[in-house]
Amino acid sequence: MKLSIIIVNYNVTRLLRNCLLSIQKYTEGEDYEVIVIDNASTDASWGDLIPEFPKVRFISSEHNDGFAIANNKAIHTAAGEYVLLLNPDTELEGYYMKDLLDFADSKADFGCLGVRMHDAEGIFLPESKRSVPDMFNSFEKLFTNFKRSNSKSYYRSDIEEDGVAEVDVVTGAFLLVKKDIYEKIGGLDEAYFMYGEDIDLCYTLLRNGYKNYYYGKASLLHHKGESTIKDEVYLNRFYGAMQIFIDKYYRESKPMQYSFLKAGLKLRHKIEKIKLK
């Protein structure tokens, strides 16, 4: 089998249904499977999709252990040469899956691949193509609204939206990777509950000599944050994930950057908490 599509669901049955319909429509004729793992949703309506999509394998988790653990659990059962991590709040928008797989096959050093994402209003989502966080681009992201053109800043504005190029980081909302390489590097780091694990995976691929790609010829609709309540729990998880990342990669090797990033994250976290009040 060529491809296993892995979807982690949590309380977004309506969007999951649309996602599955888009896969059904745009991957017709491809050699693939779909595995949906429900992360202990409080809304049990996802079960209504089982008879509607008999070719989809549904897995039910007893506990919500987070995005990384759920993906790793599902991928362990996958039969595909490639695995595609796909958010349930996304929809494919074209017959491009074969093109993506052919592109990946053509790269001897292929790490992972992401596509051009936009929201429901058609606005491009800049997290489609990113750099690894460092002291300089993190300051720009955390504390300014200034977006430099033709720069290798956090959001790679030097790459056209519909371009094809090497990048450091793509998003876990749509991330194509070879299963054997995914397993070789350890999969998603399960220290992350949610957020940051895609950055870590992409960086791990780079550190192991692989190259990551942005493929802007293919587009994806992403209904951002539909299963996320932007409350203090969300903030703690988001900024906690960034802290895990810098602890892992910068504490020992880049102490000056580590100190700056730690202080910046703490300050930005405090600012966001104040905004909630």
TrEMBL record:
InterPro entries, per database record: Glyco_trans_2-like, Nucleotide-diphossugar_trans
Sequence intervals crossing the membrane: none
Domain of life: Bacteria
Keyword list, A-Z: Transferase
SUPFAM superfamilies for this protein: Nucleotide-diphospho-sugar transferases
Every Glycosyltransferase 2-like domain range: 4-149
Residue ranges the record marks as coiled coil: none
GO molecular function, one term: transferase activity
Protein name, entry field: Glycosyltransferase, GT2 family
Source species: Chryseobacterium oleae
Lineage, broadest ranks: Bacteria, Pseudomonadati, Bacteroidota, Flavobacteriia, Flavobacteriales
